[in-house]
Amino acid sequence: EEEEEEEEPLEVEEADPNVIPEADADVSPPQDMGDAAREPSEADYEKGAEAKGMAMEMMGNGDLDGAIKHYTTVVSLTPSALVYANRGACFLKMKKPLAAIRDSSKALELNPDSGKAFKVRGKAYAMLGKWVEAARDIGQGQNIDYDEDTREVQKVVDGKMDAKHKRDAHNKAVEERRAKKRQEKLRKQRAKEEKRAAA
């Protein structure tokens, strides 16, 4: 009998310590998304502008919870693509990528050309280890509004994408070789059985 040769292993992605598990990636309860169809009053615009100023100040001071609270007030009074993208950026800093994806996706519904929203969503996908989505969104965001900081993230994501493509190509080749070996083994087995039956 021929000795069974060891099967060539498939490559798996190494665990990335920077990838956040989906169970830890969201806020509870999910953030208030406001009503973009609602027509704001003059008073809403005044209160919204005040809340937006507070949100920006708090974000600058590193008080992300406070910034989110004020951005949520703005979302409820005068929702806009930029406000959603800014609140999404806060969630990103808090390492809550699912919340950031919700906000940046809403921003893109309102303004499909928001470079900031694409970049926030792309970075959020990167935090989740979703390299294809991350590369797509970051690339789109950079095409609209290029910045060096995002370029650094883009390099990391591109490296992960290249590694994924190489891994996928390797694994496909391994699977094809395995299938070929199985076919060859079956062919030999059938030939033996036919030889026995003919004897």
TrEMBL record:
ATP-binding listed as a keyword: no
Keywords, alphabetical: Repeat, TPR repeat
UniProt feature, compositional bias: Basic residues: 179-190
Gene Ontology molecular function: Hsp70 protein binding
Biased composition, class Acidic residues, residue ranges: 1-16
Compositional bias of kind Basic and acidic residues: 35-49
TPR repeats: 81-114
Gene3D superfamilies xrefs: Tetratricopeptide repeat domain (1.25.40.10)
Transmembrane intervals: none
Region (Disordered): 1-49, 157-199
InterPro entries: TPR-like_helical_dom_sf, TPR_rpt
Protein name: Uncharacterized protein
